[in-house]
Amino acid sequence: MTILAKDLLNPIAASELAELTVAPGIFRLPGGTIVRSEVNGETVFFTVAARRDLIQNKYHANGVFYEQEELEILRRAFPPGGIYIDIGANVGNHALFVAKFLRPSEVVVVEPNPVAYKVLVSNVLLNHVDDVVDMTWLGYGIAEAAVDTFGLDFHMSNVGAGRLVEGAGDISVVPADDVIGDRAASFIKIDVEGMEMHVLRSLKETVKRCKPRMLIEVDRENREAFEAWVSEHGYTAYSRRKKYNPNRNFLLIHEEDQTWGSWTC
């Protein structure tokens, strides 16, 4: 990891920072790179620890957020002051955008992969949004029942594409309802590489109570089950094709969401 959390608590002196500078806004550390950028008039720091990773190398290393179109959907659909739940938060791209620019009351991040969530922690601390981001559930995955027998299958070229494999390790998974508790969840992002139906089914009480808006990536193999779930739970799904794979992102709006207008993806 580029920076350990404990190291971030001790500010780097200006003289030390100058020695670490390799280009304007880019600072090299023993474990990786910190990129300083200006986004929407705000200073944003990105941690780049895995140079082969798609998101870190192609986007964050160049000072930009990944999935700009999806972030625009978030900007339009997220209610200011709401609670944002990020299931499959990866290195924190979407969670950081919400925390920095959309005025949430709370951001809750869930990510089982330590290679990803260590970068997420660095990004949260560097950007001083740790007062709004709850990182309690880093190291956990989501499933319909709580067990601790999952492993991870992933490649460093695409850290966020890792899949949980049942019976292959000691990673704990819990129902999403347990993570959310009694929070009034406003918006849930789900990007879990094929386990989206497990997540949706574990949101039973939250959906009944909050009817949150959702942005979800759906694998082709899960489309039929997903469409049945959407119909059964009173949601409308607005589709958007992913750029880098054949899966689709869907914005879900509940039929009882009275504050929602028309939408075009």
UniProtKB/TrEMBL annotation:
GO biological process terms held by the UniProt record: methylation
Stored Pfam families: Methyltransf_21
InterPro entries cross-referenced by the UniProt entry: FkbM_mtfrase, SAM-dependent_MTase, SAM-dependent_MTases_sf
Record keyword Methyltransferase present: yes
Annotated ranges, domain Methyltransferase FkbM: 86-235
Top-level lineage group: Bacteria
GO MF entries: methyltransferase activity
Keywords: Methyltransferase, Transferase
Keyword Metal-binding: no
Name under which the protein is recorded: Methyltransferase, FkbM family
Species of origin: Marivita hallyeonensis
